[in-house]
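Re: your question about PLP-dependent transferase

S., sorry for the slow reply, the queue was backed up all week. Below is exactly what I fed in.
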Amino acid sequence: MSDMRRRLETVIVAAGRPPHVPGAPLNEPVTFASSFVAGGELEYARYGNPTWTALEAAIGALEGGACVSFASGMAAVSAVVGLVPAGGAVVVARHSYQHTLALLDDGARAGRFEVRRVDVADADAVEAALPGAAMVWLESPTNPALEIADIERLAASARAAGALSVVDNTFASPLLQRPLELGADIVVHSATKLIAGHSDVVLGAVVTGDAALTERIRSHRGLHGAIPGPMEAFLTLRGLRTLSVRLERAEANARELARRLQDAPGVVEVRDPGFGTVLALVLEDAAAADRVVERVRLWIPATSLGGVESLLERRRRWATEAPTIPEGLIRLSVGIEHIDDLADDLLGALAGA
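Result:
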C-alpha cells in the first residue's frame, strides 16, 4: 500500500523510518554532530541533521506538507510571523496563546505591522477585518477559551483577500484536524504538547504545502539559529509514535469528564470543544478556582498540556493572559489516567472548595 493511502494511525508509526534493508536500525539514530564531511547533502549542523529529517518527514506526512522543525513552539511562531511584510497587518484570534499575542504586540509597538484582534468564532467579524491584511492567525480550539473557527471558510476568505492563513494546530493535532486540507497556507505546532506527549521536550514545527514558503521558513531557522537539538528531535519522534493511542484514551477521558462536571458544585460553565484533550471550567471567581487547584491531589498544577499526565491551572494567574478570559477559568489538560480517579479527585476538590 502506498504512503498516500495509509491511514494516519499507520503513518504515525511508519513515517520517518530508515530504509528497510538488512541490518538497518528500526529508528533513526540520534546524530550528535556540529559538522559533516564536505561533499554530501549536509555540511554544517545549523542547516540540517538526520534526526531532524526523520521527525520532519513524519510530521509533514501527517499534516500533508513539508515540515521545518524548531527549537520551540515560539521559535516556530516567530518564524511565521517573520513572513509579515513591514507595514502589513495581522488578523489574530483574540484568545490565542498569550505569548503569540505578546510577540505580535511587540511587533506592533515597534512599528513593524498592525495587529487586529478578532473573535475567531465570529467568521463575519474575521472577514470584516481582512481588507489590507497580510496574515490571518487562527487557533481552533483557542487557548484557553476553546472557541472554534471555521477554518475552511476563513482560509478561503484570507486567500481571496491576499492574506496568508496560519493555523496553530497544537490543541487538535493532525489526527483530529488537518488545516492544509481545509485550505490553510501554514500550520504551526508546539510539538512540546500532544505530538511529543510526555512533558520532557521543548520543540516546535511549521508545515506548509508551498515550496517557496517552506524555503523561507527554513532560511529563517538557519539565519536565526532556532534549531532543535538532535536529542529533542529524537524524543519528539519517539513520542509521536504513540499519539493515536494516547489521544484516543485522553479524548475519551475528556468527553466523559465534561459530562460528569456539568452539575458539579461551584461550576458556572464547562467549556468542551467536543474534540481534543483540553477542557475549561469556569468557577465563580479567582478565589474559588485557586482553592480547587490547591485541593487536587492527582491533577498536577502546571502550565502545559498534551502530556500523558493531567494538568490544570487558573489561566488568569498570568498577568499577560487576555482580560476577556474569566478570572475563575481553570484550563484542564486531560491525560490518560483512569477516568474515575480523575473525576473523583476533581469533584472532591470542587466539593471541598
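The first strand starts at residue 66 and ends at 70. The CA atoms of residues 133 and 337 lie 44 Å apart.

Happy to talk it through on Thursday.
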